Amino acid sequence: MQVTRVQPGIVKVSPHKMSLGDRLYIPQIIKGMFVTLRHLLHNLAHLKNMPIISYPEVKRVYSERFRGRHILTTRQDGTTRCVACYMCSTACPAECITIEAGEDERTREKFPVRYDIDLLRCIFCGYCVDACPEDAIYMTRDYEMAIDTRARSVVGLRDLVVPPDFPVGPMGWRPYYGSMEKKDWAGGTGGGQERRSAPFDDDAPPNPDVFQG
Fold it and tell me: pTM above the 0.85 mark?
């Protein structure tokens, strides 16, 4: 491309004249295909030196703090640990969790009749796991969550609830990382934590000096 100055502030641009080969684009296409073929043969000859894995035959092992697919844990009797307290849906910044609560006629305990997570809106932050007081929801290291329709992105109780003998470790993002005995009653970690006594008796009169600066 030739640029000629005609007068101050005005230039004349003359386009480069294309040859017949440039107009057909065939030589450039063939040249680019040979470059691709050269890289392909080089990579096949040095496959062991490439920073890749043969997926899905070989799968990468991620950290124990990896935040992947959600699961809802259950007690030994098969009931879900979730008591539909709405704390996970309240803490969710993406507002992707939908819960509908029901009541057990035997124990008068709440349980989720509906528990849906929209994976297209979920940002996998782990706030739902941190907010759960019942040790009910985990985030595993399973990252294979491919879907082919938008409807399948909404997972419910059928996809989330796991049996009581589900192997917990090595798990992904979860409330704790040490060994802690799970109890069968409501409050998965509540049985393993000691109750803290109040600094004063419940029937004692309030101390006004506490609120002074």
Answer: no
